[in-house]
Design goal:
This is DsrE/DsrF-like family protein. The chain has 112 residues and is α/β, with parallel strands linked by helices. It contains 4 helices and 5 strands. It has a single domain, classed as DsrEFH-like (Hypothetical Protein Ychn, Chain: A), CATH 3.40.1260. The chain is 35% helix and 21% strand. A 5-stranded parallel sheet has the order 4-3-2-1-5, sandwiched between helices.
Length: 112
């Protein structure tokens, strides 16, 4: 039996948020059983905030199992907290560490 593919998507640029979300949607639609985690840091956290233009698509993706996480280091440096994000957005201590760990676990890395 082939294991389900797992993809970690790196978002660190505000301008790429729409592309990242479209790529993630395409993965879900075209790759059966895929597990996706979007990891955001630096300017990439901004489009994931509550009320962003991408909020509706993010909510749809979260309902389909996509995990969204933002970097606690970035939140501290920007004076943000978990309360600035929808409830389905989690945090990780370090986005860079999360990306490295996921790849070490065998996740495929995607940076649009």
């Amino acid at each position: 039996m082939t294991p389900s593919p797992r993809v970690v998507v790196h978002l660190d640029e505000r301008e790429k948020a729409a592309l990242v979300l479209r790529n993630t949607k395409n993965l879900l639609e075209d790759l059966a059983g895929v597990e996706v985690e979007v990891v955001a840091h630096a300017d990439g956290v901004e489009p994931l905030r509550t009320g962003s233009p991408q909020a509706a698509l993010m909510a749809q993706l979260a309902d389909r199992g996509v995990r969204f996480v933002v970097c606690e280091n970035t939140l501290r440096s920007r004076d943000l907290s978990e309360k600035d994000f929808p409830g389905y957005v989690g945090t990780v201590p370090s986005a860079i560490v999360e990306l490295v760990v996921r790849q070490a676990e065998g996740w495929h890395y995607l940076r649009p």
